[in-house]
């Protein structure tokens, strides 16, 4: 097991979690699409007892079956937890270093959008290559985020 850290965009909610693998999954269900505003969400399933919250997240009761942790200040969605389960999911993007994780399955495939499955053929641009974004960050006296 190794420890990974993460948190919300503003830094108010932070966590450290012990994980036993880098396997993650994508959820495409309509509930997750609505909760995140995306076509899918990448999750890492973890044992809740292995999470140490530096500052507890806020929780939204998203259905009679489950709740979702988030930060009330910046709105970052942080995961999903069924009621009465020893495990929960943390959003892969909320980890400080999400690069070790890789998807091993899809869930909620009935709502999967095929057009978004493989985007490798589309043109790509780094934020640092987009002059208007770079200018906005530098004009604000800030470094361009990675």
Automatic annotation (TrEMBL):
Pfam families: GFA. Gene3D superfamilies: glutathione-dependent formaldehyde- activating enzyme (gfa) (3.90.1590.10). It comes from the Bacteria. PROSITE patterns: CENP_V_GFA. Residues 4-117 form the CENP-V/GFA domain. Keywords: Lyase, Metal-binding, Zinc. InterPro entries: CENP-V/GFA, Mss4-like_sf. Belongs to the Gfa family. This is GFA family protein. It comes from Croceibacterium selenioxidans. The lineage of its organism: Bacteria, Pseudomonadati, Pseudomonadota, Alphaproteobacteria, Sphingomonadales.
